[in-house]
Amino acid sequence: MSSDIAIGIHDLSFATTEYVLPHTALAAHNGTEIGKYHIGIGQHSMSVPAADEDIVTLGAAAAAPLIAAHGSDRIRTVVFATESSIDQAKAAGVYVHSLLQLPSACRVVELKQACYGATAALQFALGLVRRDPAQQVLVIASDVSKYELDSPGEATQGAAAVAMLVGLDPHLLRIEEPSGLFTADVMDFWRPNYRDAALVDGQESISAYLQAVEGSFKDYTEQGGRPLEEFAAFCYHQPFTKMAYKAHRHLLNYCGADTDTDTIERAIGLTTAYNTTIGNSYTASVYLGLAALLDQADDLSGQPLAFLSYGSGSVAEFFAATVVPGYREHLRTAQHRDAIDRRTPVDYAAYRTLHQRAFPTDGGHYPTPEQTSGPFRLAALNGHKRIYEAR
Ligand code: HMG
Question: For residue 297, is it within any domain?
């Protein structure tokens, strides 16, 4: 479990959207008893992107504070994980590289495997740093979750980006070996190239997630990982926060451990604070869980944390990290709270208009309305090219 050199997350920052839709507004529209949202799935509101926001503007906004704090001289790789890609060829990270004026001596690539992509990016980053400990890797997880209007998945939408600087002697977390891995070919959730909104078999997706929890933890144990009781907290992928509770109860049952409510609450309660108000941010979700935990918990210095990253389709990874003593001096708690609090509530009609918005596909010049107050915006689509601007 201990490694000769300490590599991990040096800094972490997230950004979310300009707008927010409270679940009370969705419930009033579709006649759902609000308890189903607040208690049944554990969601209170969802981040809604403005017309001039997307995965690039969110990713750049998440990463900008890291570049401002640490500079970009050591960054030789940017890995952009997303499943709401804006182009089939060009990596979204190249736009971010440009908006943040990163060095040209840099490789930039996009990674996809549903919500699991950011964990793959993190693991690849660890390998690159191990090979060349002088370099840092910028990992960006950015997604906009979109389901059909009036579908069961609609209440679990959301959007956010998390940026992580990965390097040697990190300030926040040392990522440990081994990892527990699990892949199974299931059609629980997918989005064909011609569709804007995901397709999902809701109940099948919950079963597939639970099967992946069990499978990845089994492999983690077989690879010589820590016993369950050593972990101070568990960060799960949270498509909706109640899913983390289902997953942890399933894991405890699988291990023959106590499943009393207090034990489960202590293990994951704090990790849900950001996801319950942001919604599903796909690749970013598990790392928003980490941010919420670090920002709120009493001192976790030296404590091992568990991570369960799940991406439909499906791939999962169970891994551990140790919290670095002194980490609290390097948290961005005020920035994170502001990212959530600064959002402007929209009513159901305004949300629906934004949801249905799409650029024409004829190659014309289509400026976007100036809505976001964030540091970057998607200014237009012109000649099939997305035009971004920094403020
Ligand atoms: P649904 O059919 O709308 O809801 O779908 P339900 O009938 O299953 O009810 C949900 C819960 O609310 C139930 O609790 C009800 O009892 C409860 P449970 O039995 O699950 O404990 N409930 C109430 N509670 C209190 N007061 C009330 C009340 N009424 C009902 N009045 C579903 C829910 C999650 C399936 C749907 O929202 C959906 O399809 N979501 C999208 C898929 C999803 O999030 N799947 C999760 C696992 S897959 C995953 O995590 C990957 C993903 O992130 C994608 C990726 O990897 O890229 C999605």
Answer: yes
Q: Give distance in angstroms: CA of 45 to centre of ligand 1.
A: 15
Examine residue 117 and state whether it is found in any structural domain, yes or no: yes
Reference 142, options 162, 127, 165, 125; nearest CA is 162
CATH number at residue 331: 3.40.47.10
**Residues known to be catalytic:** 83, 115, 237
Looking up tokens 């079963």 gives 207
Q: Is the pTM of this model over 0.85?
A: yes
CA distances from 53 to 7, 103, 112, 378 (A): 33, 24, 20, 6
What is the 268 CA–ligand 1 centroid distance (Å)?
A: 18
254-302 pLDDT, tens digit per residue, is 999 999 999 999 999 999 999 999 999 999 999 999 999 999 999 999 9
Q: For residues 319 and 255, what is the distance between their CA atoms, to the nearest angstrom?
A: 16
Is residue 2 a part of any domain in this protein? no
Bridge partners of 200, per DSSP, are 189
State how many domains the chain has: 1
* Tens-digit pLDDT profile for residues 324-350: 999 999 999 999 999 999 999 999 999
Ligand 1 atom nearest 147 alpha carbon = 41
Kindly state whether residue 35 falls inside one of the protein's structural domains. yes
Element (H, E) at 164: strand 158-168
| 115-148 pLDDT per residue, tens | 999 999 999 999 999 999 999 999 999 999 999 9
Residue 318's domain comprises: 7-390
- In terms of phi and psi (left: phi > 0; alpha: psi -120 to 50; beta: otherwise), the region of 282 is left
